[in-house]
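call fold(seq) -> tokens
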Amino acid sequence: MALPRRRLRVPRAGLHEQAAMRLRTLIVRGDLAPGEQLLESNLSEALGISRTPLREALKQLAAEGLVELRLNHSALVAPLRRDEVADLFEALSGIERCAAELAARRMVARDVERLEELQARIEWHHHRGELREYFEVNQQIHGAIVGFARNNVLKGAHEVLLPRAERARFSALSVLGRWEESVREHQDILAALKAGDAGRAGQLLGGHVGRTGEIVVASLTDGPAEGHVASPPERNQITQRVKRKLSLKVRK
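ret:
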């Protein structure tokens, strides 16, 4: 049976949100490197969408601090700058420390069960060497603890900063020994939360986040923000690489 076209259409907002989600993943995982040009023609082809929703997606990522829009030039993957990363993790550490203190006082039995489940999963992924899967669950743990604080203002502030911190957190796990260290820190944080020890839970989570920021800052050397100008063969390579990483085009 033929259906009216109006019922099959996806709102334009749906396209740009899907595109932003896929590009965000590539940026956070380092598949699109800091300072890399984001050529609209290549991305439109790789995503299978027109430039209009692509530009909306880039604006959304720029608001999250992941992309830099430049007048009369291609957008760039935002560089990781030492001062900005230091400020970001200082703020994030304070928010998550406060959240852990509140969560230790306000968590109920099902909250503890949820954190235990997530902890078991990150330890499983760590044992198997599955860094990307580990990272996804790790982010869920941080978000869950903030949620268990049951403070909507705190949660809102955390949600604003989290996208900007994701790729720095991911890169920190690649530093020798940090992944193992992170697992142990999460074990200690969970133990403090289960014991209802607000002071220790806050101290441990704040220190955990701060340590990540220190590692990233130590690895950075600020350079020029201008991206490399890709030649035609390089542009084709970029398109093919992005296509492979995206796997499937955005659904229209």
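Residues 113 and 178 are 26 Å apart (CA to CA).
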